[in-house]
Amino acid sequence: xxxxxxxxxxxxxxxxxxxxxxxxxxxxxxxxxxxxxxxxxxxxxxxxxxxxxxxxxxxxxxxxxxxxxxxxxxxxxxxxxxxxxxxxxxxxxxxxxxxxxxxxxxxxxxxxxxxxxxxxxxxxxxxxxxxxxxxxxxxxxxxxxxxxxxxxxxxxxxxxxxxxxxxxxxxxxxxxxx
Length: 178
What we know:
single chain; 8 helices; transmembrane; ECF_trnsprt_substrate-spec; transmembrane transporter activity
């Protein structure tokens, strides 16, 4: 295992740990569903370490959180979040690290793509659970309730990634084939 691979694995583990700690802090003040704190480390992971690491971080974090804290409830919410956050991590990494898109374009496209995946997964899992889930519920949950979190992500995540690149903690994206 080379130094870069080790750095990516350690960084991913750190992002998973942040994905477990941040929601606990935000839930203490009842702001978890509004500020979406689990999303930030997953987006960071994809942008900083690439799509495979972002995908794993996004899939593992909500499962671990559900098992360790009971939040989110494993089914149907936690299961849908596995797909949503895995999409965030993978899409942000593909767009930024592989396709070399602007960080804001990569971030916003990953956020939209993850929300679409969330809507589809939620429709399936809530349907299996016999719970109501429609387009209005999707729009409210994905865009209205979480609007402060969306704004926070757009403001904070690029600053953190660019800062880590300038400090040479992570490398800037290089041209590679998809």
